[in-house]
């Protein structure tokens, strides 16, 4: 009996959708009931969808992923998975990008897999370094990170004056058209620091 085709998908944020990866995995022959997925960044350790997927895999099965970077969170994790797949005779099929014709059972496949993982980790580290450099450059130009205040200075003063006049936080929030949390922050800004 042939092994199962099992698919794994991952998107990095809760706002992203699985549609592209799901369509590709279904087109590759993975049955809908054998699709597993996570909404988590690549470096996040907790990935229940991947854990379920790996628990279902047996010798002779094929794990199908859209791209290699959807699977592992680091080079070490990638190497651990590759070693397990080789040992348990699980085939890894990558649909897009580097590694499409990968055979983990061969020496060349093992080397190629390790190199792919190294390049993927190098790329992530380069992106991280560029983001950090961009944030530092923005700070040097006087830009502050984080969200902008919800209330301008005049609105903050108005909120503080209304509170001193006996208005409730809920009433002030309705007057200024914002949430109570925003009002609490505006009021906290007025309090002297101890």
Structure description:
With about 190 residues, this protein is of the alpha/beta class. The protein folds into two domains: about 5-125, Resolvase, N-terminal catalytic domain (Rossmann fold, 3-Layer(aba) Sandwich), CATH 3.40.50.1390; about 155-190. It contains seven helices and four strands, in the order βαβαβαβαααα. Strands 2-1-3-4 form a four-stranded parallel sheet, sandwiched between helices. It is elongated and about 75 Å long. The model has no long low-confidence stretch (mean pLDDT about 85).
Distance between the termini: 73 Å
What number of structural domains do the residues give?
A: 2
Would you report the number of β strands?
4
CATH superfamily of the largest domain: Resolvase, N-terminal catalytic domain
CATH topology heading of the largest domain: Rossmann fold
Tell me the name of the CATH class of the largest domain: Alpha Beta
Overall 3D form:
elongated
Mean pLDDT: 85
* Topology order in helix (H) and strand (E) letters: EHEHEHEHHHH
Number of helical elements: 7
Instruction: Give the percentage of residues in beta strands.
Output: 5-15%
- Named CATH architecture of the largest domain: 3-Layer(aba) Sandwich
Query: What percentage of residues falls in helices of 4 or more residues?
Result: 40-55%
Major β-sheet strand ordering: 2-1-3-4
């Amino acid at each position: 009996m042939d092994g199962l085709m099992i698919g794994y998908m991952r998107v990095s944020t809760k706002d992203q959708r699985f549609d592209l990866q799901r369509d590709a995995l279904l087109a590759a022959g993975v049955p809908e009931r054998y699709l597993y997925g996570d909404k988590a960044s690549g470096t996040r350790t907790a990935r229940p969808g991947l854990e379920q997927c790996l628990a279902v895999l047996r010798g002779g099965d094929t794990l199908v992923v859209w791209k290699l970077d959807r699977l592992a969170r680091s080079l070490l994790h990638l190497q651990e998975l590759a070693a397990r797949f080789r040992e348990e005779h699980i085939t890894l099929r990558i649909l897009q990008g580097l590694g499409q014709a990968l055979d983990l059972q061969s020496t060349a496949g093992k080397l190629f897999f390790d190199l792919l993982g190294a390049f993927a980790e190098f790329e992530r580290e380069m992106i991280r370094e560029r983001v950090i450099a961009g944030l530092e450059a923005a700070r040097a130009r006087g830009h502050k990170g984080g969200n902008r205040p919800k209330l301008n200075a005049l609105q903050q003063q108005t909120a503080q004056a209304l509170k001193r006049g006996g208005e409730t936080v809920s009433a002030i929030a309705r007057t200024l058209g914002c949430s109570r949390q925003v009002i609490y922050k505006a009021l906290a800004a007025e309090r002297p620091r101890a």
